[in-house]
Design brief:
The complex is a heterodimer of chains A (109) and B (114). Chain A has strands at residues 3-5, 10-14, 19-21, 24-26, 33-38, 45-49, 60-61, 72-74, 83-90, 97-99, 103-108. With 109 residues, chain A is an all-beta fold. In chain A, the strands form three sheets. In chain A, strands 2, 5, 6, 9, 10 and 11 form a six-stranded mixed sheet that branches. Chain A has a three-stranded antiparallel sheet with strand order 3-8-7, with no helix packed on it. A two-stranded antiparallel sheet of chain A has the order 1-4. In chain A, strand 5 (33-38) and strand 6 form a beta hairpin. The chains are: A mainly beta (109), B mainly beta (114). The interface between A and B is medium-sized, with 22 and 25 residues.
């Protein structure tokens, strides 16, 4: 069965501290993973995609097939990073997404 | 900048009533998705359209839910009859064929069934 697990419901860090949002997946095929973000009073939007291997807003995520993980990392958190973060797994060729439950990141000054 | 539109933004209905939600995707986006998000959970796919055809409706409770996209543009999701457990946020998203992996989400319709 395809499943995405985000073990932390809430993560609170101080500004300037490193942050890591955890994501684990189960999928029998070749996974395609994404991080989506929802800032306060805004729409859900794509943050990054594992294939692109980009750094977006200072965030990176590496797919670890051995550990079936796709953790989101940023070395120095900013207050504007406070948001809800969802890890998502592509489940078919049409890119329908299987989302985790989300982690609320709070960055405090 | 073009955005996905949804209406209504909020809907309160009584159990056993019918309710409908509307979605207008970004112009030119062939793929349209309806997701349901229960409070505290991530979005769950209900139905996916490619133009006017259903690609995946395996998670759509077909005894009470129906979805259509007649001309391959806007879409309607209907629930009849509504049940208390249907209270949730209903999200519509669309994507362009050339960048199929990037979904653009609408603001959602918050449904409360009393």
């Amino acid at each position: 069965a395809q499943r995405v697990t985000q073990p932390e419901k809430l993560l609170s860090v101080f500004k300037g501290a490193p942050v890591e949002l955890k994501c684990n997946y189960s999928y029998s095929g070749s996974p395609e993973l994404f991080w989506y973000v929802q800032y306060s009073r805004q729409r859900l939007q794509l943050l990054l995609r594992h294939i692109s291997r980009e750094s977006i807003k200072g965030f990176t995520a590496d797919l670890n097939k051995g550990e079936t993980s796709f953790h989101l990392k940023k070395p120095f958190a900013q207050e504007e990073d406070s948001a809800m973060y969802y890890c998502a797994l592509n489940t078919n060729s049409g890119y329908a997404l299987n989302f985790g439950k989300g982690t609320s990141l709070l960055v405090t000054p | 900048e073009a955005e996905v539109a949804q209406s209504p933004r909020y809907k309160i209905t009584e159990k056993s009533q019918a309710v409908a939600f509307w979605c207008d995707p970004i112009s030119g986006h062939a793929t349209l998705y309806w997701y349901r998000q229960i409070l505290g959970q991530g979005p769950e796919l209900l139905v996916q359209f490619q133009d006017e055809s259903v690609v995946d409706d395996s998670q759509l409770p077909k005894d009470r839910f129906s979805a259509e996209r007649l001309k391959g543009v806007d879409s309607t999701l209907k629930i009849q009859p509504a049940e208390l457990g249907d209270s949730a946020m209903y999200l519509c998203a669309s994507s362009h064929s050339s960048v199929a992996y990037e979904q653009y989400f609408g603001p959602g319709t918050r449904l409360t069934v009393t």
